[in-house]
Amino acid sequence: MFTGTLRVKIHEAASLRPTDFQKRHNVTFGKLGDATQQLLDPYVSIDVDEKFIDKSTTKKQTNDPKWDESFIHEVENASTLGITIFHQALPSDVFVANCTIPFDDVFERQEQEQQEFWVDLEPEGKIKIRVDVKWTQESTPKKEVSRRQITTTAKDQPFLNRRRGAMRRRVHQVNGHKFMATFLRQPTFCSHCREFIWGLGKQGYQCQVCTCVVHKRCHLSVVTKCPKKKDEQNKAQQEIVQRFNVNVPHRFAVHSFKRLTFCDHCGSLLYGIFRQGLKCEVCSMNIHRRCQENVANNCGINTKQLAEILSEMGITMDKTPPRKTRRSARDALNFDTEFTKEEPVLTPVPNDIVRCINQEEFAGFSFTNAEFGPERKIVC
Question: Of which family is this protein a member (predicted)?
Fold first, then answer.
């Protein structure tokens, strides 16, 4: 947890690309438009523990923007710093990429004097930032201890008055998916439970990377990993994932539907008179052509029943991937220096206590401590 002054400087970003959600309607002669030719109007949103604090200006028509803008804020009990890039559009801004930086990594970089660094974004691109932190010297009591309060300096206040509502869109990260509340303009079915999504306004959650649509109640139960998620797991994490992994590819073929059919991935209607979409030859899953590369390898698996079984077993999908904690010299500041210099001493167990132990539990075990002589030999 960090309490103090946070200073973030956004330098530049590189290799930004529109997501499949943004270019899902860019169709030219039956093929998706080239994402590399589509330029963005990007800006950066900064949040601490998933709470928005500031935003940068918008750069027009570029996939490699440069900002060189600084933001200073006072934060309390903060654990993670979030960087999200949006594309400015109407009626609502579109997600481009994001990343999460634990403050433990920031502390380690500050000790190594590497406050300026590049960060890889998901699903595409990278961003160059500089993060400086200054711990609070004296802790003053707060009226509301349960809430983390964020205050801004006077010079940064104008940033909060522009498009304030557009910046409060949260990105819910579950199993690699980037879910955001979305307004569905046509009848849509949930890709998890296959039920119709009812409601007005922003009825469901849609992944901004693979375009799958689910109920708000279902987004925490999604068991399949997003196909566009970067695989950056270490050995220990891979061993955990291998214990439970859904990886059964579909066998899609072009199909002509004789009645109104909805896509089982994005939930929207399959348009056309004939050859409207693709159908799996094994599990009969129906999808758009544009959704084929975004469908998870879960052929023949009922994801709703699987999620219910895992829930009964006490296994839930983590909202954020497991992260290995890093240790630094700051973790040992509260230890007594005289105590840490002492060598560990092993205190022998008295013979009376040893005789009271059930010896059958230690059958075949033998141990001799040379420092206490042959009378300390224990043979079972």
Answer: Belongs to the protein kinase superfamily. AGC Ser/Thr protein kinase family. PKC subfamily.
CA distance 303 to 296: 11
Are the C-beta atoms of 131 and 109 separated by less than 8 Å? yes
Cα separation, 271 vs 149, whole angstroms: 49
| Maximum separation of any 2 CA atoms in the chain, in Å | 93
Write down the pTM of the prediction. 0.67
pLDDT tens digits, one per residue of 17-51: 988 887 766 654 444 445 456 889 999 999 998 88
Domains of the chain: 2-163 (2.60.40.150), 171-332 (3.30.60.20), 346-379 (no CATH)
- Tell me which of 170 and 125 has the higher pLDDT: 125
Q: What is the DSSP string of 131-164?
A: EEEEE-SSPPP-S-SSS---EE-GGGGGGGGSST
> Cα–Cα distance between 216 and 205 in angstroms, integer?
6
pLDDT tens readout for residues 292-348: 988 988 888 888 888 888 888 877 665 554 445 555 555 555 555 555 555 655 666
Phi, psi for residue 85 in degrees, rounded to 5 = -105, 130
Which two structure tokens, joined as six digits, stand for 160? Answer: 């909060």
190 token code pair: 């949930």
Q: List the Cα angle 11/15/21 in 5-degree steps.
A: 115
